[in-house]
Amino acid sequence: MNRENVRDRLIHVIASLAEAMNRIEEPEEVLEYFLKTCMEATGADSGSIMLYDEEEQVLVTRVAIGLNKDAGGMRLRLGEGVTGWVARHVRPRLIDDTRTADDYVRIREDLLAEVAVPLINSDRMIGVLSLDSMQVGAFSKDDVTLLEIVSNLSATIFVKIADNRTLRMRDRFHRVLLEISRILPRSLSLQEFFEEVMTTTQKAFRIHRSTLFVYDRQEGLLKIVASVGSHTEDSLQVTYAPGEGITGTAFQNRQAVFIPSARSEPEFLNRMKVVNDNLDLGFFCCPIFSNQEVVGVFSIFTHKQELDPKELLEFLQILGSMISQAFAIQSLIEEETRPFVVENIRLRQELSRKYQFGNLIGRSELMQELFEKIRIIAESRSSVLLTGESGTGKELFASAIHYNSPRKDMPFIKINCAAIPENLLESELFGHKKGSFTGANADKKGKFEIADGGTIFLDEIGEMDLGLQAKLLRVLQEKEIEPVGGRSRKVDIRVIAATNANLEQLIEERRFRADLFYRLNVIQLTIPPLRERHEDILILVHHFVARYAKENSKKIEGITPQVIRLLETYDWPGNVRELENMVERAVVLSRSSTIDIDDFSEVLAHIQVSGKEKMLDLAPARKEPAATAAAESGSLEANLLPGADLDDLDGRAYDFVIGEVERRLIQYAMKRTRYTKTKAAKYLGINRNTLDKRIRELNIDY
């Protein structure tokens, strides 16, 4: 082989490695790319890269191509085999015929030649590259020279990327721990805390499954109380006695245990059937303490990690201590909690037994009639048009129709026609073919195709463009769709549409097709506003209190009569959505176990009775004179910033006040337009997307 050929191959390999360094961030991927490049350059049939573990003084296979599966877990001592010899003497070795080499470790019978070179970085041997061929004498001295140069370059690249990855992983550790530290103060339920913590951790690291065991003193067993990740019902019944398996040993010895390979550990019992021949996982177990007493164990199964096991172990031990804190908090809560009052228990039972239909709640005559209609409608295939004011729960009614129909096991696809720009809505509904327009880089299924066999719910149908209305009419008439740039195809779907607009008026204004209206209006359900069914407010309030108390881990035992009188007197222009938001805010802000009128202090100013600009007389607690004087003074603090002090906003006063004014203006606009964003944006003189953005940025409830 001439020098020119060697030089050309060397330039090609170095260029490939330089390109890889710019786009690859993970060390394992660098090794695999390097091995493939070297195999292509030398014509090798198989190869491997083994890295040196200084602590155990062995070579460990990190990547292998063309070898059997046993090669993936191979470990060699220094001096063992050709690869071990190269590592010990730190120089390359060329074997023309492996049948003549006494120290050759044969993995495949048909491999007859081998070349191995050390990986050196800063005069330190970090591993060995080995290439094999099925032909005798397949490798030359030029190959050795090429591989020596490239191996040293690759070793430097590998170490640099590994160091960068370590810095990134440490930063990730810190960010995850910071996020978990924020979860701890707001969580009162041990199970919910564990599930939220492990879900957060799984997003950051390659964790397969995590489990929390708590020790049952009566039975003398560790039992599962929470689990995150893939599992079966049988696996959740697994128990361990103290000292039994890795889990029981960690509990008994009060020490954390980390096993890189659960499949290779004799003490690992695998009762959860997580590890198998095709899946080997790392296993970590950490005891949970409460007042110096071991009360349980938390364990995780990890996929192969790119990070240092010591750093992972340190992180998981910190995680274990946080779970221990959560356990201690849970114990304190259980000692101080009292049962709900009998009346609230009775109301919850009444809710679940009588006044619910799917996720719909109501005991009023209007709602009971609607529930009966849904039972009948659900069995049919006809289109349904849901009308009613914004916030009445039209989407919930659509869900109830679908999930009580023969289509309940098929897709239920929801789409808001007003939330998607007109130029994208056609593609979103009907899909498109690759190249059908600028930016169509791949085929895309539309919502109608995805919903095939099920139900599609079109919210705010009155906002749909006239051109798309014609296409929708074809779907209803012909039961077929035509993707943008594609051919038509048949679909089997049920259409449920909803609007808070007067479609008949839109027809007169030529903004809505009459033929489409008649096709959609086969069955019409009008959802009554909340002001027409005040008798539902009590059970709705109890339902929302129970939901948000659970979501926020708060113990709410009851609601005062004054609150109910207040809520039943209000006209609720935002309907059930407004009621739900008010109750959620009250639950979150409540400082006691009973929801009182004080918990609605931030919304009382918005409540008007019978159109009168005055507050409802609910005999609130007497204000302190100073507070009353401030409220009556008309000062900026009293009128604009209740409960706040402008003196505390040094450097932030302008942004805070402007934000508060903007928040109240948007809330007013939403209420004025009965919570229709398109109309609110028009009233404010801004774009719909701008309104959505400001609602998110200002964290506005509506």
UniProtKB/TrEMBL annotation:
A Pfam family this chain is assigned to: AAA_lid_14
UniProt keyword list: Activator, ATP-binding, DNA-binding, Nucleotide-binding, Transcription, Transcription regulation
GO process terms (BP): regulation of DNA-templated transcription
Signal peptide: none
SMART domains in alphabetical order: AAA, GAF
CDD domains documented for this protein: AAA
Residues in Sigma-54 factor interaction domain copies: 360-588
Cross-referenced Gene3D superfamilies: 1.10.8.60, 3.30.450.40, Homeodomain-like, P-loop containing nucleotide triphosphate hydrolases
Gene Ontology terms for molecular function: ATP binding; sequence-specific DNA binding
This protein's name: Transcriptional regulator, NifA subfamily, Fis Family
Organism: Leptonema illini DSM 21528
